[in-house]
Amino acid sequence: MQGEIIAVSRDGEHKFSKISQPVIELITGLGVRDDAHLGATVQHRVRVREDPSRPNLRQVHLIHSELFDELTGAGYELYPGAIGENVTTRGLALLDLPTGTKLRLGPNAIVEVTGLRNPCRQIDAFRPGLMSALLQRDSGGNLTIKSGIMGIVLEGGEVRPGDVIRAELPDGPHRPLKRV
Known about the structure:
Layout: E1 2-10, E2 19-21, E3 24-27, E4 31-32, H1 45-50, E5 60-64, H2 66-73, E6 87-90, E7 102-105, E8 109-116, H3 122-126, H4 130-134, E9 135-137, E10 143-145, E11 149-155, E12 157-159, E13 164-168
Parallel strand pairs: 5-6
Antiparallel strand pairs: 1-2, 1-6, 1-13, 3-4, 3-12, 5-11, 7-8, 7-13, 8-11, 9-10
């Protein structure tokens, strides 16, 4: 299973959107160099207030660009980095991956999938109504969160648009993604 990285983004300040870059560097155990969420412990402002000693399971945020295509049809114009992701992909069904999947990004970097990005109120502040568009219920009433996945950096390296992203599933049984 593989896809392509179409954009990489980071921002050193705690802003909602991130700035597209020609390259980002993933640092083992920490996240994206020069990004506000870099760290071994939680960096998200709300989570820091709750317990700053918790491990940072949200070092890298990945989102599939096919979501942008879907949301454009619903009237939301989005672009890489718009909703805070570091890596924007195409061709790999990120939301279908189980917890513990290893993603190989470019020639060296490896990110382990920890779970789903938990959408926050800032999404509606960015684009009114967008939060509802990112949350969906299936026929069984189960909630689907489409705002991307999170991971931790197992092996660092540079990542660029045009790089391949490959998924290596963990040994079974597979655990579905949950909010982190």
